[in-house]
Each structure stands twice: as structure tokens, then as C-alpha cells.
UniProtKB/TrEMBL annotation:
<dbReference type="InterPro" id="IPR009057">
    <property type="entry name" value="Homeodomain-like_sf"/>
</dbReference>
<dbReference type="InterPro" id="IPR050109">
    <property type="entry name" value="HTH-type_TetR-like_transc_reg"/>
</dbReference>
<feature type="domain" description="HTH tetR-type">
    <location>
        <begin position="8"/>
        <end position="68"/>
    </location>
</feature>
<protein>
    <submittedName>
        <fullName>TetR/AcrR family transcriptional regulator</fullName>
    </submittedName>
</protein>
<dbReference type="Pfam" id="PF00440">
    <property type="entry name" value="TetR_N"/>
</dbReference>
<dbReference type="InterPro" id="IPR001647">
    <property type="entry name" value="HTH_TetR"/>
</dbReference>
<dbReference type="InterPro" id="IPR040611">
    <property type="entry name" value="AlkX_C"/>
</dbReference>
<dbReference type="Pfam" id="PF18556">
    <property type="entry name" value="TetR_C_35"/>
</dbReference>
<feature type="DNA-binding region" description="H-T-H motif">
    <location>
        <begin position="31"/>
        <end position="50"/>
    </location>
</feature>
<keyword id="KW-0238">DNA-binding</keyword>
């Protein structure tokens, strides 16, 4: 048990170092040797834990995504059966958190300069963001929208997540305005998933 805790602490320390360096220099400026030095471990240890820079990118993105998804679940749960309030809270929180997140800012800034190596891990990697964020919405909807069609729920959740991600990457309006507009769409999509009473 102690070894597992120590291994987790080691990995977390390396990911913390990668996060700090990404915020400071952008992902393109992150070097495995610098990550090792910042984490206080050997370069070989970083390679042993993550294999490649891509492996480290995935671990860094996974931690951010897990945190976002956990917060989305909490926002949805807080509003119970109120479809509009729950979706608005989850969407607004996600947009506002992403706008204030220094890692997301660093990734978006560097990607606009031509680097897109880390951006896909936080946006369109279906096994990371789309599936996990959609699952959180589907789980909530299955509990609070009785009679909803599973395929329609899956489509609604996937569509909402994709729209939110697009507005994180390319914001066009203030967070509150975007959240309100996306909530109207989400309510229609989820509402359409509820099967009519027979």
C-alpha cells in the first residue's frame, strides 16, 4: 500500500512539474529533462513513468479532464431534476473554469502560434474528453429524465460537449451569454430525447 502511494505521489509530482512548465513556457517549450529537474527526479524516471512526451501529455490532460468532469457532475447533481438549471450550471461552470484555467490558457495561446501537440488531448480525443464528459451528462439525464431514449440521450450529450469545447477553444461572446445560448440548445436536445407518453 505504501509503495502504491509513493508511486502515485511520484507520478503526481511529475505531472505537477509538467503543468507548471506548460503554463510558463507553453507545451512546445516543455522538455523531459526540465520536467525531471522541476520534479526533483531523474530524466530516466520521467521516461520510466510516462514513456514519451506524448504519454506525459496524456497524463497531464487526463488529470485536467477528470477535474473538469468531476465539477460538471457536481454542478448537475446540485440541481437535481431541473433540466435548465442543471445544464446551465454545468455549461457555465465549464466555460468560466476553462477561461480562468492557466493551463488551458497556455495551451490555447501556444496552439494559436502553431503548436497543437497538447490541445487535442484536452479537446477532441474521444477516449478522454468526449466520452467522459458525455458520460457525466448521460448518467445525470438517465436519473432525471425518465423515459428518455438512450440513443437520443447519447446524441444530445455528445452534441452539448462538442459545442462547449468549441466555445472554449474559440470563444465568441461573454461566458454568461454563451452559457445561456448553449443551455437553450441543450434543453431542446435533452427534451427531444424524452419519449412521448404512450
Amino acid at each position: 500500500m505504501g509503495e502504491l502511494r509513493e508511486a502515485t505521489r511520484l507520478r503526481d509530482g511529475i505531472v505537477d512539474a509538467a503543468r507548471a512548465l506548460t503554463i510558463a513556457t507553453g507545451w512546445d517549450g516543455v522538455r523531459m529533462g526540465a520536467v525531471a529537474a522541476t520534479a526533483g527526479v531523474s530524466r530516466q524516471t520521467v521516461y520510466n513513468e510516462f514513456g514519451t512526451k506524448a504519454g506525459l501529455a496524456e497524463a497531464l490532460a487526463r488529470r485536467e479532464v477528470d477535474r473538469f468532469v468531476s465539477e460538471v457532475r457536481a454542478a448537475l447533481t446540485e440541481h437535481g431534476d431541473d433540466l435548465r438549471a442543471a445544464t446551465y450550471a454545468a455549461i457555465r461552470h465549464t466555460l468560466a473554469s476553462a477561461a480562468d484555467n492557466p493551463l488551458v490558457k497556455a495551451i490555447l495561446t501556444s496552439s494559436r502560434g502553431g503548436s497543437e501537440e497538447l490541445l487535442p488531448y484536452l479537446t477532441t480525443r474521444s477516449d478522454l474528453v468526449l466520452a467522459e464528459a458525455s458520460a457525466a451528462l448521460i448518467e445525470w439525464a438517465e436519473r432525471h429524465l425518465p423515459g428518455a431514449d438512450p440513443a437520443a440521450l447519447a446524441f444530445a450529450a455528445d452534441s452539448v460537449v462538442r459545442l462547449v469545447i468549441s466555445h472554449i477553444v474559440l470563444p465568441q461572446a461573454p461566458v454568461d451569454d454563451t452559457a445561456e445560448a448553449l443551455t437553450r440548445l441543450a434543453v431542446r436536445l435533452f427534451g427531444a430525447a424524452v419519449a412521448p407518453a404512450s
